[in-house]
Amino acid sequence: MGMVFGKITVETPKYEVVQSSADYEIRKYPPAVAAEVTYDPSQFKGNKDGGFSLLANYIGALGNPQNAKPEKIAMTAPVITKSPGNESEKIPMTAPVVTKGDNNNKVTMQFLLPETYKTAEEAPKPLDERVVIKEEGERKYGVVKFGGVATDKVVEEKVENLKKSLERDGYKVIGQFLLARYNPPWTLPAFRTNEVMLPVE
């Protein structure tokens, strides 16, 4: 019932607030370990989750973990998406997911693993060779938080405003935005927590 009212009960990434203003926060995220799948979205017609089920199978969210130990890996939040053309991709449940587009219109979907995994070697080896374990370095983002439903129109407006605020204050944006959603889709809109994140130097 708590999830309907926006209660976040899973691990969320730790970060350091470097600067806080009325418009946004500058956050520094420490290194993390991720599981990822790269796929062509056109191969998943009628199924919006793309590589989600491959990653959910790896951590054991949909049954027995599909990794060499086998070891069940805890879910985390937020869901972070990055798709070709900066369009947000619908993900069916809250999970540690990052989705990124590349030049071939392929999408990389990424689950951030719990912080107990400090290196890629510590994470259980995936049984499916499409799932790759990698280490993410330290990252810095300009972040703005907002509630309600993260529609494309709302997200586009938040990204534009954040970009203007960052550039006004002398920050250089160095990549596409990420949309972070902390709640599953059945959470009432008034209780949802979302963030738009822009990578900065």
Automatic annotation (TrEMBL):
Record-linked InterPro entries: Reg_factor_effector_dom_sf, SOUL_heme-bd
Stretches that traverse the bilayer: none
Taxonomy, superkingdom: Eukaryota
Gene3D superfamilies, per database record: Regulatory factor, effector binding domain (3.20.80.10)
Pfam families: SOUL
Protein family per UniProt: Belongs to the HEBP family.
Name of the protein described by the UniProt record: SOUL heme-binding family protein
